[in-house]
Each structure stands twice: as structure tokens, then as C-alpha cells.
Write a structure and sequence with these properties.
Radius of gyration of chain B: 17 Å
Largest sheet of chain A: 5 strands, parallel
Number of strands of chain B: 0
Radius of gyration of chain A: 30 Å
Structural class of chain B: mainly alpha
Structural class of chain A: alpha/beta
Strand content of chain A: 5-15%
Shape of chain A: globular
Helix content of chain B: 55-70%
Largest sheet of chain B: none
Oligomer: heterodimer
Number of helices of chain B: 6
Strand order of the largest sheet of chain A: 8-7-9-12-13
Helix content of chain A: 25-40%
Order of helices and strands of chain B: HHHHHH
Number of helices of chain A: 22
Amino acid sequence: MARADSRTKLNRRNFLVGAAVAGAAGTATNIVPPGAAASPAPASPIDQPPRPSALAPTAKIAAAEVAQPQEIKAETGKPGSDFMVDVIKTLDIRYLPCNPASSFRALHESLIDYGGNKQPEFLTCMHEESAVGMAHGYFKVAGKPLLTLCHGTVGLQHAAMGIYNAWCDRVPVLVVGGNDADAAHRPPGVPTFHSAQDINALVRDFTKWDDTPVSVQHFAQSFVRMYKIATTPPYGPVMMSLDAGLQQEPIRETGEKLYIPRFVPSSPPQGDSGAVKEAARLLADAERPVIVVDRAARTANGINLLVKLAEVLQAPVVDQGGRMNFPKTHYLNRPPNVIGQADVIIGMELSDFWGTVNAYVDNGEHGIGVNETKIKPGTKLISINSVELITKSNYQDFQRFQPVDVSMPADAEATLPALIEAVKAAIPADRKAAIAKRGETIRKAYTDGRENVRRNAAIAWDASPISTARLVMETWAQIKDLDWSLVASEGNVSFWPNRLWPMEKHHHWLGRSGGYGVGYGAPASIGAALANRDLGRFSVSIQSDGDLMYAPGVLWTAARHKIPLLAVMHNNRGYHQEVMHVQRLANFRNRVAYLGNDLAPLGTSIQNPDIEYHKMAESMGWWAKGPIKDPADLTPALKEAVAVVKSGQPALLNVWTQPR
Amino acid sequence: MRISIRVALAGIIAALVFENAAALAASAENGKTAYVKHGCWQCHGFLGQGLLVTSNGKVLANSQLPFDVFKKFVRSSNRAMPPYREAVLSDADLADIYAYLQSISKPPDVKSIPLLTP
């Protein structure tokens, strides 16, 4: 990693060391002016003559201030970071959400000056977690990864939770961390605090791959490789530690011609043909097959394929919502309770198969939970899950182990065409009438279920704080005629959008954070809104209060870069999940939960004082209004906000809501 | 044997009458305060509307559940809900809460809400 020579005498390291020495000289104060004779010490402080408020300069500093500065020669030769920009540009990465830092200042400078701030365009972020969250949300709309740069240690520590969410949500993010690796040459003090032997170690447990290139040619190979690995299903974040010196120094002439490897995408892994055939046989012979999907539809075509499979089988589909998998308007879209009736269940890209077929009741005796099966004995289970190919050890995102009858470590969307054909071939002619009849029964249940949902939504319709059903449907009324995209709904609004909005397209619903690391909603919705802006779509988010306060600076980023987004707040004034956890434990222990002056157990409320989110957003360049507590005030506020967003600006409504 | 059955039935009836009398004597206004103070709103909403994730959508407002059944459930629960024993929630407060839930206005007919009409 350490290079054999530093090419120029007046390089960045010498400059910084010089600056550090000058600074140290300035602080080692010598208050006796040069040439002055030492005088006897005064008898007491009172006897001291008044001192000037600004200390006289030392002889060295005084000389430096009047002397003719020595000419500093410009760097010659192509900087390593310019070549890195050449590499990055071959991959058509549109944006670079980033919080600036010295360890990648050379690459930063090359990107904006040599690269013209295009592909990628620098988006100023105020927190590394926000930058990663934006990249996360962007991918789920655009289907293309973004690059983010972060400071080697402290910046990466900030970014870590966002990277973990991306890992659990199977989303590619390209993370490059600047690191001053060369201990013999790096500046002392702060830059050394911010250096490490192996910054990648911090996130190695939840990235698909990482590397530390030691030459610019190595960078070219590794950058193209990391892009390829990140964008091959199962997707995931990748990490590169990039030495500050390698970025900054001119490219050394070694006689070898530098080249940029061509990127060719890898095809996704497909299920084994024998396993596909066995799965098809089980499904075709089933009396009550159920299809369960979480991140099965990577693309819009994934939805079409799932509809085909469901219709061939006339099987209900339970969409767990990791992505928009299945149209909510289709009669085969059913709630999770159909799982209990199944004789064959096929799970596709489930993040938790065990939790799909079992229940955990967090209320057992002796302070531990109770496990219960949700399925009948003998139910056959089929799994298609690409994540099995990248299972790691430390972090437990792989969930509990669930034995299945047919296991395909493969990409579901890539496997579906073969599975559909195999199912068609496996259905005997004499079963077709029974299968069609099954569909009719499900259609009636679907119609009845829709009616029940609407009736439930009417309860507390006029409540204040505003019911989440009302919040969601008032919002819907204002966006329904637009090409809309619900870019984040982490606010736990009882799944009303999924239950009441006619979600059909892949961009209508983007799923959740993946790792449930709170603080995803605001940056991911802004990243997704950025992608939607370029596609001419209208973005709306249900923004929860606690989530916004982790890194609210991302609001400024949206305003600064003119990213239109309608953020409708689900402000229930608490960390509501935690409200219930503490209440639950108090009840278990036969104790009255202490509320202090709040509504909820001490430590779980966000009130006293109430946060004026609308003012906070306004201060960062958003159009905003609130607090809205009366449901009658929602429609006019939403109309104004939608008009603002249509004009290209972000808008926020601070709405006080029921808890969920 | 017949006498002991009669005695038992009389006891049950007396208990039910007593329970329901307690419920009838309860205060909806006090119940609203107790409902918030004891955290019922956390999973059921301020108006007992039921929340899908936290209470499986079970609607408490205007519940047809008799008070004694309601009370037994709250005291022992179905495990998904943490039990509220008497040390945490008094009988009087529980009766008031029941009265509050009974007093909540019935929701509007869904057909009268244009936003919920397909």
C-alpha cells in the first residue's frame, strides 16, 4: 500500500505537515517581543501592566507574513483520481450522494473539475447514512446503483447502518471509503485518527465484497468488479477502501498501458431443472397451494410472471411487501391467513420463511416468547431464494432455519419462466375444472375482504389526532390521477396504502428498509424521488416522526438539489414500537408503567416539547405546513402541497396522527 | 346434587349481575382518562378502532362483548396482548374503560364516505 516514493516535494503531505508545524508554532506562545529585555516579575497580578488582546507574533511568524512566498509548482502528470473518474464514467452512474471529507478530496476534485460533475453528479449530503439511504431508495426506482464516497473511519461508521439496511434489503450500493493508509507520509493528527489498517472490516459482515486496490490499474479492475458483483442477483452493497495517496499522486509511468475493463452483466442464477420440475409437480397436485412472495419481483416483469403463475394455478398470493410483487387489485391477492389452509406453500425470496409458517407470541410465561406453527401437519414447502448464495455468519439476517421439501438457491424472477411452463405441463387435464372452481371461491373471498377493509377504515374517520386510514385516503385523493410512486411508508400506518390503494405497477410500492434500521425513510424516499423526478413521476412518502430525526439534514439535500417529494407525516409523537414494548414488560411484571408527564412510558415519547417538523423543513428550503390535527384541514393543505411538488419543490405536511 | 347446581347457577348469575352492575355504574368520562393512562390506546387507537399490526385489527369501540368476558380477557388475555392484572388496572378503572368503549360514537356508514367508495 505504501508507495516507494512520493513524487513531488511539495505534495499534499508536506503541505499539511508544514501547516501543522506552523500551527503548533503559533500555539507555543512566546509573549516576550523579540529583543526585549527581561524585566523583573511584578509583585502581584494586580501590578501587571495591561496586555494587548492579540498577542504579538513570533519572529518566525512575523517574517512569514512579510516575506515573498516561494513559488509552488503545479502538479504535473495525470492524477490517479482523474483516471479513476474515467473508470467510474464507463458505468453510467448518474449521481453521487456524498458528505465531503479530506480522505477522498482528490477524487472529489477530479469528479467535479476533470469529470465536469456529470455521471456522477455530486449531491451534497449532511450525513453518510443519508447518502447511503438515498442510494438505497434510488435503486429501487431506477434499477441502477449509485456510488457514495465516505471518510474512512468516522464517515463509514455513520454510513454503516444504511449499508446494513441495503444488505438486508438486497440492494446494491457502491461504497468507496477514503483512507490515508501510508503511516510514513500521511498527515498527523486528525487524518491519522481517521485512518485504519482495514476500514472494510467495519462493514465486511454485511457487504457482498470488498477490496483495497494498491494501484490505479488495480482500482480499475476492482471498481468494475465491485459493480458487477453488486448488480448480480442477489444484489447487495459492496465496499472499496481507497488510499488517499493513490488518488492524489500522479500516475507513475511504468511502461504498461492503463486500461478499463469492460462491464458485462452476469446473468442471475436460475433454479435447477430437476428441482423446478419437482416443485411444479407438488404445486400442480395441490388442493390448496399458496404462493408467498417477499422480494420476488426485482423488476416490473417479475409482477407479470407472478400473475401468470398464480393464474395457472388459481392460487392465492400473499405479498409480504419487500417489493411490489403482485397487483393489489388482482383477486388472487390475499392476506396471510390463507397460509393456514395450505397443503403446498411456495415461498419466493422470503426474508423469513420460518416466520412465514410459524408464529412467535411475545408473551409467554417465564419471560420468553412462545413458538406456534401456522400450518397443518404435512404441508409441503418449496423455497426459491437467491440469498442462500450469500449467507454470512455474524449478523443474523438469515433468520431462523426452516427445513423445506424443495430448496432452490436461485433467483426467483429468473426461475419463474421455467416454473410456469413446468406447472402448465404438470397439471393433468382432469384437474383443470377443479382449479378453475378454486379460483371462483378465491374471487368471492377477495370481494368480501375488500368490503371489510373499507368498513374498518371508516372507524375513527373523524378522529383527532387523525386516523391513519383517513391520512392515507386523503392523500390518495390528491395523487390518484398522477403517475404516482409511494417511495417510503415506514411509518407503520397499519398497511392502509397496501390495503386501500390500487397498487399495480412496480414503482407504486418500493418495500421497506430491509434491516429495520430506523432512519431509512427520509433519505430513501428522497433518493427514490430523485429517480422518479428523472422519469417524470410524482413521489409521495408517509414520513414518520422518529425516523426523520435521525438525520434530518437530508431535507436540505432535497431542497438544494430540487428533488420534488410530498412527505406526509405520520406524527404519532413517539417511538411507537418501543412504547408498546415497555408497556408489555411492565404488564408482565405486574407494574404500572411510569409515564412521567408523557402519554407513553418514559423514554418512548417525542413530546414535551412537540417537534415543529414543518418549521424544521421550512428552515431547510421546503414548503411546509402544520401541525394538522383536524381531518377537515387535510384536503386544502394537501392540495397546496401537491401543487408545490408539481412545480418541482419538496413539500412536507406535519400531521398529528393516531398511533398506527 | 340438584341443589348444588342451583346454588352454583345462582352464584354465577349473581356474579354476572354484580359485574354488569359495576359496568353500568361506571363512568365513560373516567374511562377515557383510564384508557389513555393505562396505555390501551397504544395498540387499539384512541377510539378503540383497532390497528392491524398491533391488535390484529380488533375493534373495541361499541364492542358487543359482555363486560365479564371483556374483563376476563383483559386479566388473562390471549397471550398476544399482555395481561392487565388487578395490581396494574383496578376493577373500577376497567369498568370505566368498558363504559368509555361503549360510549364511542358508531362509525359513519362507509357508503357515506366518498373516499372509501370504490
